[in-house]
Amino acid sequence: MKWNKRQRQPKLREKIEEDPFITDDALASFFDVSVQTIRLDRLEMNIPEVRERIKDVAQKQYDPVKALPEEEVIGDIVDLELDSYAISILDIKEEHAFSRNHIARGHHLFAQANSLAVAVIDDELALTTEAEVSFKRQVYAGDRVIAKARVNKAAQNRTHVNVESFVGQKLVFSGSFHMFREDQVEKGELS
Amino acid sequence: MKWNKRQRQPKLREKIEEDPFITDDALASFFDVSVQTIRLDRLEMNIPEVRERIKDVAQKQYDPVKALPEEEVIGDIVDLELDSYAISILDIKEEHAFSRNHIARGHHLFAQANSLAVAVIDDELALTTEAEVSFKRQVYAGDRVIAKARVNKAAQNRTHVNVESFVGQKLVFSGSFHMFREDQVEKGELS
Question: Secretion signal: which residues (chains A, B) (predicted)?
C-alpha cells in the first residue's frame, strides 16, 4: 500500500530521526515513491539532505580520540563515546576499488573498521592482536560506508570491539577486533 | 661454539641459499659474529647483499597475476605460482606507521597479505569473503615484511589462502583468507 503525502511525511520524519544517515534513494525505495518525491517532501518539511545531516551529527561534541591522532582514523568519525561505541563514514572512491570491476578492496573496509576499533579505546596505546572479519556484500566506488563499533570488555583486561559496516541499510562487513591496551603491553605480553 | 672463517663460510652460503631474503643482521646473530664479518664473508664469496638477492629473485619468471593488475598488489611480488604459493615484500615506511610510536598500522599488513591472497588465485575474479588474522609482533617503520601465501583448496570449490608474514626470521602476522572465485559469484552465492 502506498501512503499519500499526508500519511507519508510524518513517517518520513520519524524514519530520518531514527537513522540520520539514510539516503534519499533508500527512503524512496522504503516508501515506494520516486527519489524526486522524497526530495520534495524534505523541502516541504525543511529537512536537510543526508550530507548536511551527517555534518550536523559530526559537529556535535563527541569524546576526543585517545589512542591515535584523529587524522589517522580511516574515514570520518561522526560519533564516539570512549570504551563504548563509535561511528565513522568512508566514501568509497575509485582509488579504493579494483580497477576492473569497481568493487571496493577489502583492506579499505578493514582499515576503516580497524582504525575505528583503535579510536574507540580509552587508552593512549591500543593495538590490534587478532581479528575475524567477514565481507558480506560487495561495496562499489560511489558507496558510502557507515561503520559502527561497539566495545565489549572481555576477560583478563582485554577488550573486544565489534564493528558492523553498512551501505544504506545493508550490512556489508562485520569484524571482531581483539585489542591490547597499554598496560598489557608494558607487562610484555605483546613483544 | 663460534666457527672460524673456513667453517663458517660454507655454512653461510648454505644459509643464504635456503633463505635468500635473510639480512646481514640476522646472519650475524645466527653465526654470533659482527655484521662487518658477514659483509666481509659475502665479499670474499662474491655473494651480493640482500637487496640485490631479492631483485634477482624478482627478475626470475613467475606466473602472471590474473585476478588483478599487478600494480594493485600491495608490496612487490617476488615469486608466484598460481593456485599454489606467492611471496611479496613490503618495506614499512613512516607513512605506514602510527606517528606516535612508529608501529606499523595493522591494515597495511592486512592489505599486503590480502592482496597477495587475491593475486595467487588462478581466476579472473577473486573476492575475499572472510579472514581471520593475527598480529603476532609489532612491526616498525624501517622493517621489511616478507609475506608468504599458500593455497589450500577447500571443500565446495572454495579456496583458503594462508599467509604468514615475517620480519627477518620472526613471524609478525598470520592470516587465513577465504576466497570466492568467479564461478561461485556467477551462481549468485555472493550477492
Answer: none
| Local confidence pLDDT in tens for the 191 residues of chain A | 678 889 999 999 999 888 888 889 889 999 999 999 999 999 999 898 887 887 776 666 677 888 888 778 899 888 899 999 999 999 999 999 988 889 999 999 999 999 999 999 988 888 899 999 999 999 999 999 999 999 987 666 678 999 999 998 899 999 999 998 775 544 444 43
The B76-81 sheet, strands edge to edge: A76-81, A85-91, A144-153, A159-167, A170-181, A126-135, B126-135, B170-181, B159-167, B144-153, B85-91, B76-81
Interface with A, mutate which of B68, B107, B167, B180 (most A CBs under 10 A): B107
* Cβ contact B135–A128 (<8 Å): yes
